[in-house]
Amino acid sequence: MQAMIRNVNETEWREAALSLGDEADLLSLWGDDDSVRMALGFKEPRAVFVLALKCRDGRFPSIAAMFPAASRLERTICDLYGHIAEGARDLRPWLDHGRWPLESPLGAATAHDGGGAAYPFLGAEGDGLHQIPVGPVHAGIIEPGHFRFHASGETVVRLEERLGTAAWTGSCAAPTSPPRRASPRASAAIPPSPTAGRSPARSSRRTASAFRPGSTIYAP
């Protein structure tokens, strides 16, 4: 199935986000030099569209504000390109642990001392709660990752993960090197997105009729 690519404005970008979950699936969300792109898979009729939005002063309307599953993808875009999702509830870094020698390595690529930064894990409050840090080094041969549990007895109240560390070297688990810029040709490809998915069903929000396959915005 061939994807249709369309340039959209901010209003159309937001309207497309309203179709996610009910009428379309979020296939991927990624950044480029001066823009962001979103791939949607419509269910009826079956169609795939890639929407491209130019970032205004390095900012774009948050998809996660309407579709929470897009949050980590937006955080990744910010880490790699420096584009900020306006209206997002979670603006914490996702891939960048503050150890890279560059900030926004695929964007402005400004120098950074790589000294690291404390990560603000989400908290949980209540009587009898315990905070249990696990990793990034684990027993057995599994990928590294830090997990922060908040538990009350055997009940896990909150679990938050922090990924992006390299394999165990025998002395420390250091964050990976920043990614290198891909060739311009690769920017049009749709990258795999294991974190993208469907949101819980919503009864009050429906997409505008202009954002259905066959409408003006999606017309060939």
Protein model, in words:
- Strands 1-4-3-2 form a 4-stranded mixed beta sheet.
- The protein is built from 2 helices and 11 strands, in the order E-H-E-E-E-E-H-E-E-E-E-E-E.
- It has helices at residues 10-18, 71-81; strands at 4-7, 24-31, 35-42, 47-54, 59-61, 84-86, 102-103, 110-111, 130-134, 146-152, 155-162.
- The longest helix has 11 residues, at 71-81.
- The protein is mostly beta strands and 220 residues long.
- Mean pLDDT is 79; it is low at 167-174 and 186-220.
- It has a domain at 1-96 and 178-220: Beta Polymerase, domain 2 (2-Layer Sandwich).
In terms of topology, how is this protein built?
Elements: E1 4-7, H1 10-18, E2 24-31, E3 35-42, E4 47-54, E5 59-61, H2 71-81, E6 84-86, E7 102-103, E8 110-111, E9 130-134, E10 146-152, E11 155-162
Parallel strand pairs: 1-4, 5-6
Antiparallel strand pairs: 2-3, 3-4, 7-8, 9-10, 10-11
